[in-house]
Amino acid sequence: MDGADVSTRLELYRDPWEVKKKLTASDVGHLSRLLLPKARLENHVLKPMGEEMVRRVKSRDGMEVAVRDADTGTEHRLVFRYWASSRSYVLNGDWNRLFVRGRGLQVGDEIGIVWIPSLTNPKFIFKLLQKADRRTSNAATWSSR
Length: 145
What we know:
The protein is of the alpha+beta class. It is 27% helix and 30% strand. It has a seven-stranded mixed sheet with strand order 1-6-7-3-4-5-2. The N and C termini lie far apart (66 Å). The relative contact order is 0.20.
């Protein structure tokens, strides 16, 4: 045996949050949409989706999806779509009301999303991973004035 099939990599923990994002002003603003990182979405969400689901996501109307909030246990319906004009994926619909205002999300908060590709009830799981440090945010705001 030449050892080519043996890995010496030690993995103690696999981070389940395949898609992570620090929220920007446009994510928490009046547009009511969460702009998602394209490369991560294509690798971790679209690949496990069937062709029909991907076609619906890329259609003009997008695809309605369940989004379960891992912190509150609530489940909401949002629209997952590809915006060709900006070449990006978004979750929109009631994003602002349900998540931004409902959870008190702010610029700099880090969120995580994972796609659960169930045959009967596929969904996104959402989690607030870390609140932004308000002392740092406030200091940056004051120093820029």
